[in-house]
Structure formats: structure tokens, C-alpha cells
Specification:
mainly alpha
């Protein structure tokens, strides 16, 4: 299906939100019913909930990259299903055409795997807190729903980030900027500054390197016409607008005012920060009902029972 005309119509925020609402599962936040939309109490330590939220995001990123390079069997955290597109099992690498990109993908896969292992150890061994197991992750329906929502139509063929190297880069783009903004947004609510905040800042730095790498690779191909009839620049811009609509307007494509935009920042050249709720809106592909599942997490995040109330407070920030 040719989506060039759809892109030219410049889908607005209202329509993007509507598209997201149609794609999402519409699950209501009930795990901690009655939570008031207000900042976390200053005398309460939410570090375990914050790191478990981050762990859920890292499970998603690790699953995507490990599958892309044929290493899905290395993904830790339990045996919850990772849904992959039909005909792709994540045990064999996708067909990279550029040897350098293949190496970049493998390096990022290792980084994301290490983040999962580190966060699990930090929670269990250092904080002595509950550790979220891996939730069910949908890398087939999640990506196709996100692509359909971005363009306001049902794409044919279905968008598959494992189909080729270029689509893999588009899939990676969906995640990387979100990871940076998620860690930045959580920073003010971390209690243990010397340990937890410092390590979170270190992970944020690595995610930022990843994001810059992916954005650079996409910019180098910005004028390439994709199989959907739109250029790489246009496709990336549509994804960016979708994330902005769901995630507080904090996003930019790879071209701004006709110039390269490898580093998405505010007017002070500071990285954007998203609240946990804004991040959840993006990964659940639903902004209409305080969803706790949908999109890439069809059964929701893995939330330790003893941290359910803390999760609820975090997800209420900024409502």
C-alpha cells in the first residue's frame, strides 16, 4: 500500500491519539485503585518500583535486538512468550546487508542483555527487592499496530522489523529515544542518589549512544524510498509524531527545518524527559484509558505484587 498520500495529509495530534486508542487494549489501571494523580510522596522510596519499570522496558529492548541477531535464546527472566512474526524464530540473524550494521546490532543486543542482567541483580542483590519476571512481549502485533497507528491505515504488507535491515532500523528507532527519555524522566523520583541514580544515569548514557547511532544510520538513508512508497525521512517523521502525541509532545524526527537532527533535544539542547505514564502510553499504544496493557505488552507489565501500589503512583505522575 502506498502511504505517501497519507503522510502528505499531515496527521494531527487528535487523529494520532484516536489511532492509538483504536490500537490499544483499553485496560484500566486497577492494580492500585484509587491512586491520586500527584507526584510521589517525598518520604517514600520508590527506587524498587522505578527499577522494575526500567527492567520491563529493558526486557522489551533486549528481546528485540537479541531476536534480530539470532540470540533470542539468551534472553533471561523466565519463560514468558516473545511473539515474533510468522516465519521468524529469532534463532537466526536477519539478513543484514551491511556488515557494520550487523556488528552494531549485535553490540546493542549485548548491551541490552547486560542491562537486564544488571537490573535484576541490582534489585535482588543490592536493594533486596522483588524482581519482575519477563512479561509476555509482542514483537509482531506490537510493531504492526504501531505502524498502522502512525499512518492511520492498515499497511500491506504488515510492517515487520525483522524483514530486512532498513525495517530493523525503523524498529530500533521506535525504542531507543523512548529509553533515553524514560531514564531521564524517572531521575527526579530516585531516592538513592549515589547508587541507583548514578547507575541509571550510566544506562541512560548508553541508551543515548544507541539512539544517536540508529538516528545517524537512518539519516544516511533519509531519501531512500521504502516499500510503502514513502521516504525513510517521512516514515521516521510519522513515527516521531506518533510518539509525540502519546508521550507528551517530546519528540523530533531526523530532519528539523531542513537540517540533520541526530540529537533530539529541547530549546536548551537538553534531552527530553518523559514520565512513566507517558512512556507507558507509547509502549501500550493507548492514551485513552490509562492502559496497563496492550501494544508491545499484550498482558501488561510484570509488576511484583508488593510493588503494585508504588507502580500506580508512578503511572499517575503528570495525569
Amino acid at each position: 500500500m502506498d502511504i505517501q498520500n497519507a503522510l502528505k495529509k499531515s496527521i494531527g495530534r487528535r487523529q494520532l491519539l484516536g489511532n492509538l486508542g483504536m490500537m490499544g487494549a483499553g485496560a484500566v489501571l486497577t492494580a492500585c485503585g484509587g491512586v491520586v494523580a500527584q507526584p510521589p510522596a517525598k518520604d517514600t522510596n520508590y527506587d524498587a518500583a522505578i527499577l522494575n519499570f526500567a527492567l520491563n522496558l529493558e526486557y522489551l529492548e533486549a528481546a528485540f535486538y537479541l531476536a534480530a541477531v539470532g540470540r533470542i535464546a539468551e534472553l533471561p527472566g523466565g519463560d514468558a512468550e516473545v511473539v515474533l512474526p510468522a516465519g521468524f524464530d529469532g534463532k537466526t540473524s536477519i539478513a543484514f546487508t551491511n556488515a557494520a550494521v550487523a556488528q552494531y546490532a549485535d553490540e546493542i543486543a549485548t548491551d541490552e542483555l547486560n542491562h537486564v542482567v544488571f537490573l535484576r541483580a541490582a534489585l535482588g542483590d543490592v536493594l533486596k527487592a522483588s524482581v519482575a519476571p519477563r512479561p509476555k512481549i509482542d514483537l509482531a502485533g506490537g510493531f504492526s499496530a504501531a505502524a498502522n497507528a502512525a499512518f492511520g491505515t492498515t499497511l500491506a504488507p504488515v510492517f515487520d522489523p525483522f524483514a530486512n535491515e532498513l525495517f530493523f532500523l525503523h524498529g530500533a528507532f521506535i525504542f531507543e529515544d523512548v529509553g533515553v527519555t524514560a531514564y531521564n524522566g524517572a531521575a527526579p523520583y530516585i531516592t538513592d542518589k549515589p547508587t541507583v541514580l548514578q547507575k541509571a544515569a550510566g544506562i541512560l548514557g548508553v541508551e543515548a549512544y544507541h539512539a544517536g547511532e540508529i538516528r545517524t544510520l537512518l539519516y544516511a538513508q533519509k531519501d531512500v524510498v521504502t516499500p510503502y512508497g514513502a521516504t525513510v525521512e517521512a516514515v521516521v517523521d510519522a513515527i516521531s509524531k506518533l510518539r509525540a502525541a502519546a508521550g507528551g509532545g517530546k519528540d523530533q524526527g531526523i530532519v528539523v527545518n531542513g537540517k540533520a537532527n541526530i540529537l533530539p533535544t529541547d530549546e536548551n539542547s537538553v534531552a527530553f524527559a518523559r514520565t512513566p505514564r507517558e512512556v507507558a502510553n507509547i509502549v501500550f499504544l493507548d492514551t485513552t484509558s490509562k492502559a496497563l496493557k496492550g501494544g508491545f505488552y499484550p498482558e501488561g507489565l510484570a509488576i511484583p505484587t508488593d510493588l503494585a501500589d508504588d507502580f500506580g503512583v508512578l503511572l499517575a505522575i503528570g495525569e
